[in-house]
Amino acid sequence: MTPKIVVFDTSVLIDHLRTGKYRNNFWKLNAVVRNSSVVLSELLRGATRKEEADFVKELAENHPVFTPTEKNWFESGNILYAINKDMGFQPEKLKDLHFDILIALTARNYGATLITSDKTDFKLISRYKNFDYEIW
Fold it and tell me: pTM of the prediction?
């Protein structure tokens, strides 16, 4: 049996780093972990201490990194166009959704399950594109 592949969204990693909230979830996880280059970038963007930046470097060194393809970038723009047409979000919200869409599409490329704590945004995205995700 092929092991399940998971990609963590930024929300789960930040929540865990700040509070240890998902300690039991991580211990029980029976899956192969992969990173999203988008998530690593978001984590580094928000890092305020050397330990946080070191954590991101350690993630990248210990788990292969999935990166959005050219097709993913184009498709993400089409999804954002449809969401904006339907919902009329402000530009800042569309920017935040853009990164989430890229994470979802990249995980989908590899048949990975995206693990997130951002139920609202990923539920919205899944209305426009099918992908596997799990809410923690």
Answer: 0.94
